[in-house]
Amino acid sequence: MAKEIVVLKRPDQIKLFFDERMAPLIDLLCSREMTVSQIAIFLEMKPGTVYHYIKKLLKAGLIVQSKRVKKRNLIEKYYRSIARAFNFDLDAASAIPHAGTFSYLDKRLEDDLRCLVAMGYDIPEGKIEAVKNLAVSFQRRFNSLLEQIGERKETTGGFPQDIQREAFGLAQLVEMYSDGELMEYGKRFAEMVRKS
Predict the structure, then answer these.
(1) Cβ-count burial of 3 within 10 angstroms (0-12 exposed, 13-18 middle, 19+ buried)?
(2) Are residues 104 and 70 in the same domain?
(3) How does pLDDT run along the chain (196 residues), one tens digit per residue?
(4) Are 106 and 74 members of one domain?
């Protein structure tokens, strides 16, 4: 059974998570289990390429072989992600170089801020570094809360998966809105980033 969310801490996992070639495959396997052939058809890729990516993801521990099904003389292997969603440890991400002097974290934050601007939000030029620092503080605290919720979720095995997922989402809301530190980060973020 896949966990609801996993915070990635190993550099090899974070690199694969950020790899544009792997992202569609990871996203797909977060929501369902599939064979190499099914993935290749769905993503319009060559089966050999998909198999190569599957091997990398298995080695990094981001996916697992979830079952084997015998069909005539063949055995089909199904794969799924280890979690329904991923987040990443900020310290680990900032230690991984990306395109020279930038870290994976710097790249991710730059992309996130550009995406916010594309969605119609305004980030004043002089506030970009402050917004980045605040986002890092928020994410660090949020990761800590997610890990705590994840530990508690392990006790819900007697409930159906859909109920566990919904309860996990509700637990996130409760923790976010009852955590003073996280609320303060959110308030300061909203003051700096405005809808244009």
Answers:
(1) middle
(2) no
(3) 667 788 888 888 888 887 888 889 998 998 899 999 999 999 999 999 999 999 999 999 999 999 999 988 889 999 999 988 888 777 777 777 654 445 667 777 888 888 888 999 888 878 888 888 888 888 888 888 877 887 776 677 778 877 877 888 888 888 888 888 888 888 888 888 887 6
(4) no
Q: What is the dihedral of CA 182, 96, 45, 87, to 10 degrees?
A: -20
User: How many domains, the chain?
Assistant: 2
Q: Retrieve residue 178's tokens.
A: 């009852």
| Domain boundaries, position 42 | 3-86
Query: What's the rounded Cα separation, in Å, for the pair 131 and 109?
Result: 9
Neighbours of 55 (CB within 10 A): 10
* pTM given for the model: 0.67
Let me know if 81 is exposed, middle or buried by CB neighbors in 10 A (0-12, 13-18, 19+): buried
User: Rounded distance, CA 86 to CA 165, Å?
Assistant: 14
Query: Is there a single domain that holds both residue 189 and residue 109?
Result: yes
Decide which of 86, 121, 149 is a domain's last residue. Answer: 86
